[in-house]
Amino acid sequence: MILRASRVREHRVFAALLGLGVVLRVLATVAYRPALLFSDSRVYLEMAEALVPRYDRLVGYPVVLRLLLEGGSLDLVPVVQHLLGLGTAVLLYAALVRLGVRRWLAALGCAPVLLDAYVVQIEQMVMPEALFHVLLAGGLAALSWRRPPRLGAAAVGGVLFAAATLVRPLGQILVIPLLGFALLVGRGWSQRLRVAAVALLAFVLPLMAYAAWYAQVHGELRLTAQADVTWYGRVAPFVDCDRLDLPAHAEALCPRLPPAQRPGPGMYIHGQRSPLRRYEPPPGVSREAVLRDFARRAILAQPLTYAREVLSDFVWVFRWDRVNKPDSPAPVERWHFTLDYPEHVKDPEELLASHTGTPPTVVVPLARLLRAYQLRVGYTPGPVLLLGLVAGLLAAAGVGRARRTGLQAACLLWTLVPAGLLAVPAAVFEFSWRYQLPGVVLYPAAAALGLTALSGQLSSAAMAASSGSVPISPAQRPATRPSASTSTKNG
Q: Residues 185-203: what's their mean pLDDT?
């Protein structure tokens, strides 16, 4: 008991934050029962019953839903997801401390996972984010635990990143930081190539197996066809069809309104007035192939306009407050705690009754408390996320004392993972505060790691633990004075 108490004291900052995170999640669980629903929740619940790949959804999250629903009712889902959120923080904290980040700084790097009300709110929803986040944290921890990682750790990291991709398809971008990290660690190119090969195989093989399953159902070897539709939605608000050499059958996809009057990408994907609603390709032509070709032509014809739109979405998250992006069809209010049960789904009472037998309930005083916390202080300011991006990239480049710490590869990995996950929605769809949550979860941790590397202030325990595991050039070795016995022996 004394040992346990001393361990808690050593990690008292993180323990305090963890306790606050538990309190927030208990309040959310009691305030909204059995769970919050979003428009996608119905699809995930339907997939949990059939477990068949859809063209626009992967089965990773429905598999977990199926297990939870068979083990209890829908009430169990947010409870488990809150535990996954707490587990995400524990994994990130343990990995940061292992890498040499001071305990108090590592705890602050994990604070948004525990205390950001937007993270807690989506854990209360039937949505895949909590599962996605814990798989990302597990992959980062596995790859970073030893320097350089052993082949087994590289395989675990690759598998966890693949599992994250089967939860949300934007995880495909993770192959870039995965390979970049693997090719930078190790004592020589032979070891680096082995680590990279193992990590790549562990990442690709599960995805290939799923693609084969998808091909059996839909006739194409791919994970999902959703990107073809979202690419079209991304370019439709700005495309100038007069500059495109379109085939005749694709001209019906051109928006009729002038660019200044067009709505955002979401309307062109889901809206009733979208050209997609009435578009039918000619016989023998795939609808997805037409959309993909349309988007490609638009981007090649207007690359600067496309780049400006993508950059505008990517940097919006770095604002201090969380406000709606102009003309965005995905308002931030979707992710606010509300004083009544939100109507994101048609007939939520009926949907919930089919899984729980009870109607939705809201404990208004607790909901009011959560909402006030969320709107006033319970969010992570954008500059904190920007600090993670900048500090992580500078440390990865070896600025300051980063080159001496052996943390460059880890900084690259921890920074490129959230950056890539935020860049994909900006490139292929639209801005939504939901899509920024991987940055909220991971950028602050990258900031803690990057600042540690830039300052060179590694914890003494981590330096001792990593002794002999990180290659140090002769120029970096500290000068030591020979002992008396050695001096005598050498004359």
A: 92
Is the pLDDT assigned to residue 483 strictly greater than 50?
A: no
Contacts of 303 (CB under 8 A, 6+ apart): none
Q: Each residue of 398-420: pLDDT tens digit?
A: 999 999 999 999 999 999 999 99
Angle 408-428/226-235 helices, nearest 10 degrees? 70
- Contacts for 164-167 with beta carbons within 8 Å, 24 or more apart? 164/132, 164/135, 164/136, 164/139, 165/58, 165/60, 165/203, 165/207, 165/223, 166/58, 166/59, 166/60, 166/206, 166/207, 166/210, 166/223, 167/58, 167/60, 167/61, 167/128, 167/131, 167/132, 167/135
Contact 143, 149 (CB under 8 A): yes
Distance separating alpha carbons of residues 324 and 133, to the nearest angstrom? 24
Q: Please give the average per-residue pLDDT across 308-318, as a whole number.
A: 95
Q: What's the full length of the chain, in residues?
A: 491
Integer Cα distance of 375 and 370 in angstroms: 9
Half-sphere exposure of 437 (CA within 13 A, CB side): 28
The β-bridge partners of 362 are 32
Instruction: Give 138-181 pLDDT, tens digit per residue.
Output: 999 999 999 889 999 999 999 999 999 999 999 999 999 999 99
Average pLDDT, the chain: 89
- Please list the residues that pair with 36 across neighbouring strands: 125
- pLDDT tens, residue by residue, 10-39: 899 999 999 999 999 999 999 999 999 998
Q: Which residues contact 18 (CB under 8 A, 6 or more apart)?
A: 86, 89, 90, 114
> Mean per-residue pLDDT for 204-233?
93
- Taking alpha carbons only, the member of 155, 139, 161 closest to residue 199 is 155
Structure tokens at 157: 């990291």
Q: For 147, how many CA atoms within 13 A lie in the half-sphere containing its CB? A: 27
CA nearest neighbour of 34 among 339, 336, 354: 354
CB atoms within 10 A of CB 131: 24
- Measured between alpha carbons, how far is 137 from 475 in angstroms, rounded to an integer? 34
Contact criterion met (CB below 8 Å) for 406 and 466:
yes
Among 102, 83, 180, 172, smallest CA distance to 408 is for 180
Q: Which residues pair with 125 in a beta bridge?
A: 36
Rounded Cα distance, 269 and 275, in Å: 9
User: How many Å from the N-terminal Cα to the C-terminal Cα in the chain?
Assistant: 54
Q: What is the spatial distance between Cα 242 and Cα 367, in angstroms, rounded to a whole number?
A: 51
Model's pTM, two decimal places?
A: 0.91
